[in-house]
């Protein structure tokens, strides 16, 4: 079979109308690719439109503050993507005079840009013949060619890249790459793929051997870490609260949250007040503490599950400088905090 021809014909007939599809400007393609990393198109599309509206050029994005970028990104998760996006925009403006890199090799110099993103931008914007390999591509190729090598192993990453590059239509890499990803999203889906109408069904090894549900193969993930967060939601008589910016390299770097007391397990108020972090927020005698949610809110991240309870601390005055309650929504916060703010109705 002529794989590339069949694929491109399918793509031209079935591709979705997406706002970045008509673009060749590398800035917009880069923006869409970073936003859509580990994100479904339905979720990412509104964010793409917001970013394009607020930052119509790489100069606008570079000139923004990190807090503004994080606030606009709020709810997408994996916030390192937003920080890398902002850092790369400043690099392009300050070091490259606003000229976007035009080759796969040079694109890899951008922070947060790896093989997949560099391949996508280089092929879509500059027709460079480099194959993309993402989750959709792994699934399509593993099924059609019956490949059992784990897709998250060193051997698998190399094997699938070589195969994708071999299949690539060197004269039309843009449509080929977009077609392969689109095919995985619409036709060769993870669950209930459209095998009866698939143009490759006659040659698909997984379909012939009834191994569709078993492919692709992925090595077992690392153990999920469980963490227990207790947020102290201070509310003073003059309607202020406390927010702290997360530092370091952990989750939610640069975002804001209420004072946090992390414990080894679910805790009682009697034990909570014994924690050093709690005692560091010395308050006046006229203080009352009430548990907002008896049942912890479970927030699931890729490698950790966070069990969270919010403690409402009403006090005469704050132990430190506060934030007016009416301004609380101006700060970039994790979605976990955002949902609490919405439910508490300050």
Structure description:
Its EC number is 3.2.2.31. GO terms for molecular function: 4 iron, 4 sulfur cluster binding; 8-oxo-7,8-dihydroguanine DNA N-glycosylase activity; adenine/guanine mispair binding; metal ion binding; oxidized purine DNA binding; purine-specific mismatch base pair DNA N-glycosylase activity. With 346 residues, the chain is an alpha+beta fold. It has two domains: 3-214, Hypothetical protein, domain 2 (Endonuclease III, domain 1); 225-344, Nucleoside Triphosphate Pyrophosphohydrolase, CATH 3.90.79. Helices cover 41% and strands 13% of the residues. It contains 15 helices and nine strands. It has helices at residues 3-14, 26-36, 41-54, 58-63, 66-73, 80-95, 104-107, 115-126, 135-144, 154-167, 173-186, 205-208, 269-272, 276-279, 335-344, and strands spanning 225-236, 240-241, 244-245, 256-257, 260-263, 287-291, 297-300, 304-315, 323-324. Strands 1, 5, 6, 7 and 8 form a five-stranded mixed sheet that branches. A two-stranded antiparallel ribbon has the order 2-9. Helix 2 (26-36) packs across helix 3 and helix 8 crosses helix 11. The longest helix is centred in the first third of the chain and has 16 residues, at 80-95. The protein is elongated. The model has no long low-confidence stretch (mean pLDDT 92).
